[in-house]
Amino acid sequence: MSLSITSLANIAIDLQNGITHQDRFARLIRTLRQLLGSDATALLRYEARQFRPLAIDGLAEDVLGRRFALDAHPRLEAIARAGDVVRFPAESELPDPYDGLIPHHSDLKVHACLGLPLFADQNLIGALTVDGMDPAQFDHFSDEELRLISVLAAGALNNALLMEQLENQTPAANAAPATGKTGGTEMVGLSAGIEQLKKEIEIVAGSDLNVLITGETGVGKELVARAIHSGSARAANPLVYLNCAALPESVAESELFGHVKGAFTGAIHHRIGKFEMADNGTLFLDEIGELPLTLQAKLLRVLQYGDIQRVGDDNSQRVNVRVLAATNRDLKQQVLAGQFRSDLFHRLSVFPVHVPPLRERGDDITLLAGFFCEQSRVKMGLKQVVLSDGARDLLRRYDWPGNIRELEHAIYRAIVLARAGHPEGELLLQPQHFQLADAELKSLPTAAKTHPLVDNLRTATDDFQRQIIIQALDANGGNWAATARQLQLDVANLHRLAKRLGVK
Q: What fold, for 361-501?
């Protein structure tokens, strides 16, 4: 059946009724999926030669966290280049980015695929993708009907982008329009905590205030610093990084302020310090709580007067540097304990920014898992990396004491384990591929506890054996004979047990 005027009018009405841009986009693709009878639809934003999903329907939740680079996805590149409706033939050899990512059809390839590029003033701003499992699913819709849909969607997306631009309009944004999210500063997530963090970054980036970034290890404090710098009027100038925890006290002053030739044994050349490198830019001092007290006093002087003095030099010079500092410590407690200067603390924390731990970010865990799956897939040259329902559930239940860094490493390890048995490069990550400590798992939802006790016992026993085998294999470099000896099992019995548990 063809699209009626009424159905197109309903799309337009839906786009007006949404309270937020996200709500309008969700209504749009939900309505489109129903009208076109598709198995999956997605609205993608185009930026920096990649497509970023804004709303999905009928696709795995982690797709929202994936970033589809044109260089790695020839179908999406064809849509970006087309300028009009794209219909991919069922026998197309171009891999579909959503293969394995449509729930209930994860073992099947997408057969019907439409791409509708979205334009504003002849500039590509996004795309709609419509996918189905039946090769003839969309044959009865004309290109003209599909073009009308793309015009409606493009108008809605362009309005959202213009509103976003107006909301974020600051002198800094106008001075450096080419920075922003394309420089590796995008924060993946839609939770309330991460949305609040993004707002705080937007507020403080346009000022020239010093910022203290707090949060646990692995939450992404350096990413926050890069985002603040990218959104500032200093974005065209250097962002210089210094890890205070890695500085021996004997060289810390030279690292910060530089030295002149002959200042000390081994000083055979003049050397500029991090402050001079960051002149007119930003200096990011990571793990600021580790800075020795003697250097804290000298850092305070720079923040107060803008003067630095190289080691061994009688002359001082002025620098114009914005300081961003980060710590996973409680600096207030360190001040009370006499381990951190109170005056420096107040100078640095003019605008404190707290980065929430991953365990407080809810569904962001799934989005980040999808982000790292796609990143690893491209880096490792794999055809497909898909998370099973069980794997997604496990990742949500885990407490992530190491936060985002631990999640990234867990995804990478799981891919390495899964790839060992799939040289063709189409991977489905299962719970057994993740080596996560049981002590850090949250309780199962109530519904999952209603199974008979015997089932729970069998599942728990299998999970325990699976983890032990995987850990032993990892410790023995994948050598099955050595693993059998460590576990005091006959190697043939170990192979049979591993096969039953899904390890092999």
A: Helicase, Ruva Protein; domain 3 (1.10.8)
